[in-house]
Amino acid sequence: MKINRIFSAICLPALVISAYAIVPKTETTCRWMKVTDVERTDSTTRVSVKLQNRPHFWVMVSPDTRLMATEDTTLQYKLRATENIELGSQIWMPESGQHDGVLIFEKVPNNIKVVDLVETEPSDITNCTLGIHLEEPASPPIIPEVLSLSDILDKGPKPAEAWTGLDPERYADLKFYDKDGMAHIRGRITDYSPRYGVATFSLRTKDDFTEKEKTFVGDINTDGTFSIDFPLTYPQYDYLHLGEIHKNIFLIPGDTLNITTCMSSRIDPDRGLVPEFFGYEGEPDDAVVINMHTDSLEERYGLKSMYRKYKTQDTDSMKADTYRLSVQLAALLDSVCEDLPDYLGNLPVSVFAKDMLSVAAIGRICERMEDIQMDYRYNKGARLVKNEDGSLSQTEGDPLDETLFLQPWMKHKKLIYDNPLIVCNGWVLPNRWKFNEQFHPSAMAAQGMEEVPGTIVFISSDDITSLYDKDLSRLDSIGLGNCFSAQLARISTLINELHTTAIPFSERFDRYNRLVARAIKHNECGKLDEILMSEYNDYVKDVVIAENRLEDMNDESKVIADSPEGNVLTKIIEPYKGNVLFLDFWGIGCGPCRAGMMDQKPLLEELANKPFKALYIANAAENIDACKKWLRKEEIKGEHIFVSDDDWQRLRGIFNFSGIPFGVLIDKEGKIVKTGFSIREESLLIKTLEE
Description:
This protein is an alpha+beta fold. It is built from 19 helices and 31 strands. The strands form eight sheets. The protein has a nine-stranded antiparallel beta sheet with strand order 1-3-4-9-7-6-10-11-2. Strands 26-29-28-27-30-31 form a six-stranded mixed beta sheet. It has a four-stranded mixed beta sheet with strand order 15-12-18-21, covered by helices on one side.
């Protein structure tokens, strides 16, 4: 505020001089700031801005913010003063998520027509507004005609018979699963400019039956059009990353989704930064209907705000609060299931679209239920702790009564736990089922692992029949029985075990044969057997191919000796000084880690002759043999480094990461450029290489 008072005393008289103001044309927009007006006076250039963020979040404007001539970046004009903005301070957003202010810069000469508003560095595109045309007013935004809900509701044929609700029996045969399916995305960005620094988009998919996750990357053309074709095994919500757009979109194998959007953005109180518009063109087929109605369902039932409304804290009352929220969420599910037939019943769309929309609503509520159960286990459950002598001991915790927690949900057991279609709602529920109290023992039994009585430790067992008998008895005792969710947890975990083994040893054949046979015996869905056997056949082929190939391959990985003196990072990077380094922390059990390393192979080939090294760093305590075998099998180039468990913890402390994959970019002098770095940030990587 001191700056504003000084400006008022010194600079205000200048504003009575001849001036003009326009809403200028801009080529790109800053993530947190929109230029709403530019006024050039005889002594200053006033830029009116609108800061934006979620309500009760903050925005900070740097004192280094400046205007820079687009054609000649040596011509820069300093920020002299502000109105309603305190530089370098947190400016908290009101309920509207917007805050108006003015930035007053040195006068930009009249012969300079276009400037960039730069907060830190021009390469930091998200914090810059590029191409501000000082004498050219903005054109009306291009908002194309896209499909609306009325196009679906008014023009579609009325259903021949009323839809009375989702029946999971329609999907018991899993006919929606197609191993060879392909999906297609076509799109255009109406206000695209290459100056955004965004030349690619990505789509992340996951097959929750086989635990295979894949990220597909496509190029954005200079005219803003983009397209991609990719394999998709079943209908599902996938994660689209397009510039500042982060959105779950529903895709169906065989269908084409035509997207129209823009780079300019606004703040949504529940979702944060969203594009000014995001719509669909073409025919209102099932994928379009489901995408458009998902948003309306979330608004109708308040599903966007569930995290804030249904949340527990780590307090003495957490257990009681968890039971209470379970009851409240179950009541919400009751009301939603009762309302869905009235809301969706007469819509002129397919039965599948109505069923999938029901699953979207049901799944969101169940995800929140799983999350509060996970939060409780994380805060109050039993856990293993490492003692000073390196041994492990268990804290007892205060576990939930599973029957009491599940009781409010058993009314909808068929819709939740015996509903194959719910897998199409996304990865959250299948992931939670593998690790929650109800189905984690089933997942472990599928791997031949038995819980040591009175502990949370699992050990390998050869009595696989007994493991299954105990698990089925346990599931019956809590009212779930051998439901679809338990079967899915088993086969996905077993398939992941096959993948994780990477290059397996032939002597494991017998054990895996027995595990696969037992899983099939207890699958009540034939399609699950087919999926499991397909993956197992691939595994057997890999054994034969890998063992033949590995005989003639050298192991060039490095194991770093433990560094109690704390210099593990120096030990790792010192041999590569003079190179730009990409440190990729990974583990063999991490699907996204392995998928990312596979995706990086083409880029590593491109950079083979550059001063660049990719250092893949793993914890030697986490199955080093499997890591080495997988690296060699997949022919992953780069430097493969293994560190002790203690050094792994030291590295986590240095870079402050809790999950993997995690990347770090280091320059040629050994200085950290960025933590949390993705190798797809090619502009930063290239800049670091050129320095």
